[in-house]
Amino acid sequence: MSFALPQMIRDNLRWVLIGGALLLVTLIYFLFFASNAAEGQGGPGQGGPPPAIVTLAKIEKLALTPNFTAPGDIVANRDSVVASEVAGRIQTTLNIGARVRRGTVIAVIDDRTIRLARDQARAEVARLQSDLTYQNRLVGRLQQLLEEEAESEASLDEAISTRDQTRARLAAAKVALETAQVDLARTRIRAPFAGQMVERRIEVGEYATPGREIARIVGREGSEARVRVPIAVAGSLSTGQEVTILADGEQRASRVRTVIETGDEVSRTVEVRAPMGSHNLKMGSAISITVPTGIERDVLTAPRDALVLRDSGIFIYVVNPKDKTAKRVNVQVGEPAGDRVAISGQIAAGDMIVVRGGERLRDGQNVTWDDGKKPKAEPEQSAG
């Protein structure tokens, strides 16, 4: 039985053979070079990815004190809303942002009505003083006449009573005069301390009444760092205890001025304040305070950059310097210590760990690094 090729193939058999040969050569070429490329990616004598270039550091044992860092802000220890003590129309006020000293006039109230009350009280005092002078003389004459039996005791008693009443009215008039003078002074509303007028709560032409807010004054001297810490942490704090304040990227040492005894029922935190000292930061600037929460103890630490954070947990890569492989080790993170952090797990002091290049490592992968050792120069051979 014979097999006959189709007429079209017989007519183009030459080209079909040439195309098949080219296809076979191409297939052999790709298979050969793909195999060589796969072999070239492996380590010495084995397949797999090439060694990863990493940067190493050592696990070190340090003496650390457990601490807690809380965010907060800078507040002035003097922040006052100044109010009016008398009624009247506002005539002038300082501009917002004005720097003031203690006693600087920040607003003026129309004082015409109070001046009239003062003048009236002054006139009343003068009248009563004149009456009292006359009645003192009258009592003296009546006492002399009574001794001469030329006047009755009833007349003397009446004169003494009138004089005493005048004396009491004079005392009341002097109080009214002093009150008018105090009210007159209160028409000049003054800053209670040195600082800055940060708010103006009344404008020229508005009518002020006793208790009406005029302006807010904030003092710069004696500013403090204010934070809220959990009640459990606050139990280890006491007045005078040293804390570290981080403000505007700079650390400064301070001491706890006070721990407010009453905590917030919702957040379960208490307020802690510490002096800021001299600075150029604005009130309300964000800061953080680190407070100690325990006693000093020796712990293993690693650079923060060595930690690899994943959904499955936190781990580091420990490098075996003999076979240059990286082993993944799960760790638990503890207290921070500058650019390092306390860790615990199956690690030991002196272990070499990856601090750069660990994001894409795989457990057991080969690594390479620059150990800083330079090759020794070969001695030059003398000619001849």
From TrEMBL:
Domain YknX-like C-terminal permuted SH3-like: 299-368
CzcB-like barrel-sandwich hybrid domain span: 81-217
Keywords assigned: Membrane, Transmembrane, Transmembrane helix
Alphabetized InterPro entries for the sequence: BSH_CzcB-like (IPR058647), RND_pump_MFP (IPR006143), YknX-like_C (IPR058637)
Transmembrane portions of the chain: 12-32
Key word Transmembrane helix present: yes
Coiled-coil regions listed in the entry: none
Compositionally biased residues, Basic and acidic residues: 370-384
Annotated segments matching region Disordered: 363-384
Family, per entry: Belongs to the membrane fusion protein (MFP) (TC 8.A.1) family.
Name assigned to this protein: Efflux RND transporter periplasmic adaptor subunit
Record organism: Parasphingorhabdus litoris
